[in-house]
Design a protein that fits this description.
The complex is a heterodimer.
Chain A (H helix, E strand, L loop, with lengths): L6 H32 L10 H10 L1 H35 L2 H15 L2 H12 L3 H25 L3 H9 L4 H12 L1 H24 L6 H10 L3 H29 L1 H10 L1
Helix pairs in contact in A: 2-11, 3-6, 3-9, 3-10, 5-6, 5-9, 6-9, 7-8, 9-10, 9-11, 10-11
Chain B lengths: L4 E10 L2 E11 L4 E5 L6 H8 L9 E4 L2 E2 L7 E4 L11 H5 L1 H5 L4 H8 L21 H13 L5 E5 L7 H18 L3 E5 L2 H7 L2 E5 L6 E6 L12 H15 L8
Parallel strand pairs in B: 3-8, 3-9, 6-7, 7-8
Antiparallel strand pairs in B: 1-2, 1-4, 4-5, 9-10
Helix pairs in contact in B: 7-8
Classes of the chains: A mainly alpha, B alpha/beta.
The structure holds adenosine-5'-triphosphate (ATP) and magnesium ion (MG).
Magnesium ion binds next to α1 of chain B.
Protein name (chain B): ABC transporter ATP-binding protein
GO molecular function, one term (chain B): ATP hydrolysis activity
InterPro entries (chain B): AAA+_ATPase, ABC_transporter-like_ATP-bd, ABC_transporter-like_CS, ABC_transporter_ATP-bind, P-loop_NTPase
Chain lengths: ~270, ~250
Amino acid sequence: MSQPFSAAPRIAALFAKVGPALLSVGTLVLAWELYARISSISPTTLPAPSRVLAQAIQQRQALFDNTVPTISATLAGFACSLAVAFILSVLIDFFKPLRRALFPVFIISQTLPLVAIAPLVVLWFGFGLTPKIMLVALVTFFPMLVALVQGYDSTDRDISALLSSMGASRMRIFLLARLPSSLPYFFAGLRISITYAVVGAIFAEYAGAAKGLGIYMLNAKNNFRPDLVLAAVLISALLTLALFAATVLIQRAAMPWERLEAARKS
Amino acid sequence: MSRRLELRQVSKRFGDIDVLAGITLHVEPGEFVSILGPSGAGKSTIFRLLTGGLEGHGGCVDFDGRPLADACRPFAFMPQHDALMPWRTVIENTALGLEVQGMSRKAARGKVAPLFGEFGLAGFEHKYPAQLSGGMRQRAALLRTVVQDRAMLLLDEPFGALDALTRTGMQRWLQMMWDRHRWTVLLITHDVREAVFLSDRIYVLSGRPARVLREIIIPLPRPRKDLASPEASAIEADILDTLLEPQPAQRT
Ligand SMILES: Nc1ncnc2c1ncn2[C@@H]1O[C@H](COP(=O)(O)OP(=O)(O)OP(=O)(O)O)[C@@H](O)[C@H]1O
Ligand SMILES: [Mg+2]
């Protein structure tokens, strides 16, 4: 299984994976650049990508200062959301009626439009970290809860039957079988939620903050600087990609058997 | 000496479907007994009743002459699918029962590790189940079962998912292992040849609702090497007749 590969085929394999994505993104950026140059459209309406990049480099200190609070809001909010989702998922797994009591409330919470909620949360909790954490948690909590509850339920019945025939308690069965069985669902939920989390944090900042990518975008827009808006968008996209990649790496480290199972089934 | 396991008139319904219609059977200490029956008859249901996964509807079950409820988890159970945990290495999987019994991880591994050679798993201790062949998975599941040192083994179609060649190899291996260890075994199978080759006695079940059609004693001498001796073939043909022909005389 762990044959040593030489570097060249590995890079080729990596390129085969990310090549198509790079190609499509590259084509899009190139078309945009050409259009912005040929059509002589004003850069205050549609700046060319090259201009966005140049401005981003020029404004790197300001961008960096505004990215740090966004990252901390995202991670703090997501961590809170994960902790609460995990605790609730365990309670729901042990007391099934809780599920029917709580899920409707959470489903309604998912229908609230962020545009309307964000300013209210800021109004109630001020410009600090709290409203950001709350909004990030609002958008990520339910997907994580659903992923965990579904994951527990995906446990192989034969494994549960085996454990109870061995005399394992309910708690033991949860720890030995249900929790590990939920890992693939947990990570699938994690990958989706982490992208929501960044959007949630930016939305919260947009509604009112001292610093952050959201408020930076708002100010740049009000100053008729779409190039800086887009520079901030670029940063938030890179941030999302980085977080996504981190979850993939964590998943690989946490579930070394997963790729072996996939190889066996294919 | 009292019987190790005795079921009398055990019945089970799911909703309004009768699955077990009064099963009576017994197993003596050190005996290898098989339950043979068509698919869907209710064979696995018998094991679920014994291991506490289900409540029965009437009948009684005794273990060593006393009600099963008084016995302290006397069975080591091997489910129909190997039920190996994909996230545990082979040695962690095989030590599972001991860990659940309260043994420390280290002690449990220390107890299973010396058995890997006998079970044809040497060198695979730290692999994941996905890295094993079908036959090796079954041997790992069997090792997980026998290492628990319970009074009796319940094996639910241990070789049902294997190809014919591997299955024959595993049957010979199990026969050899049983000769050495003389476990008390109740085996479920729908492979007639397997039942005849391995068992001291066979209970042949009808289709659903399951009842015992016949009890057959296999007088073949041990150790058995040949799966297809003329005597064995005659018994096989007899059992197949029972299974495949309708039994109007025995239905009440
Ligand atoms: N929990 C349940 N609820 C309703 N019906 C069930 C349940 N469990 C089993 N049955 C039914 O009971 C019957 C017997 O099932 P069982 O698994 O014992 O069969 P089996 O003899 O082991 O079959 P196979 O050889 O295919 O494994 C089947 O018809 C099945 O549909
Ligand atoms: Mg079955």
